[in-house]
Amino acid sequence: MNAETLPFTKGHGTENDFVLLFDKKGEIEMSPALVRGLCNRHTGLGADGVLRAVRAKHINAGEGMPRKTWFMDYWNADGTTAEMCGNGARVFVAFLEREAGVDATDGIAIGTRGGMREVVARGGARYAVDMGPWSIDVEGGPSVTVEGWQPRPAAAVTMANPHAVVASLTPDELAAANLSRAPKVDPIPPGGVNVEIVVPLDVEGRRGCVSMRVHERGVGETRSCGTGACAAALATRAWAGEDAPDVWDVEVPGGALVVRIEEGRVVLEGPAVLVADGVVNLGSTAPPAKPRI
Questions:
Q1: How would you classify residue 141: left for phi > 0, otherwise alpha for psi between -120 and 50, otherwise beta?
Q2: Is residue 204 pLDDT above 90, yes or no?
């Protein structure tokens, strides 16, 4: 592998975009600086995060998993790692189908920092991800302050990743919310938290609908968040009461996702798109030196 260049693929799931690296033997030296350079939208390729496909035996985070398991080594744009990425898992498996020849029709188990997850190809470039167990605390969650808002109570949801879900009063208020800065969360978990703002659009019958925006830790506002969509559906379902639907359509700025709440698990379904392939000059992704004054 040329140390000066790096082959890559660009993909997205409901416009939550990623740089994908195929690294079966773990030969790429991953670092926060490399990730920040690749994800920079001015000097790099531009992305919300990096997904590296590597066998579990070649990464410490894959310890205890079957050695030949494909591990989704996910990094946020700021160079930090995260436990799980629902949109990324779909794009990751689409990438594996092409690069490694895997067949996900009947499901494939992938490794993540949040544990093993199964992804099933549904056809038509759509994939369903078993997001695993979850927990929710509606009464004891933190308060969230979006710029220009008074503090509001939030539901604390764990989908491997931590989430704070706060309700918006109207679709117009949701659209106008300023997420250019991270909302204030009190108390904030030591590792940070994703914040979702949601407004229910329809909870009649056995299928609900919410609109959502998200500020992701380590990234900022993104066009979509898979674990966040699950957290939004779980929180809205809890707020709606015992007769609330178990299937939710979640509208995000980048498209639409479906969340199915089942016994002991949540299933996320949505599209995955591979956009482009190329080779990046690693020297070009470094930020320019600051001018001397």
A1: beta
A2: no
